Amino acid sequence: MEWSAVANFIKPELLIVVAVCWVIGYVLKQTPRVPDWTIVYAVTVVAIIVVCIIQGFTAGSILQGVLCGAVAVYGNQLVKQTTKKSGEE
Fold first, then answer.
1. N or C, where is the chain less crowded by C-beta within 10 Å?
2. Over the range 39-66, which residues count as b (16 or more CB within 10 Å of their CB) and which as e?
């Protein structure tokens, strides 16, 4: 399954949550004391909380939050990997 298909599962009114998660992930990446491996978890937790605030606490809201967090992290990695110069690690 392609990630574009996963992105289609996100309700359109929650796309702002994806953007917020992207910004939060960027800020956490710039913070020296935050280990990189924790960023994906922090973004996902924030996404779940924000979606539950918007839509109420349901299983569907939790799933939408996980999808928003995942698409934000995937989108960041997609941009980062496509803009990385070849041979640069």
1. C
2. bbeebbebbbebbeeebeeeeebeebbe
Cα→Cα distances 23→9, 43, 88, Å: 21, 9, 25
Contacts of 34 (CB under 8 A, 6+ apart): 28, 42
Residue 68 contacts residue 3 (beta carbons within 8 Å) = no
Residues of the chain below pLDDT 70: 1-4, 6-7, 85-89
pTM (2 d.p.): 0.81
- In a 3-state reduction of DSSP, which class is residue 53? helix
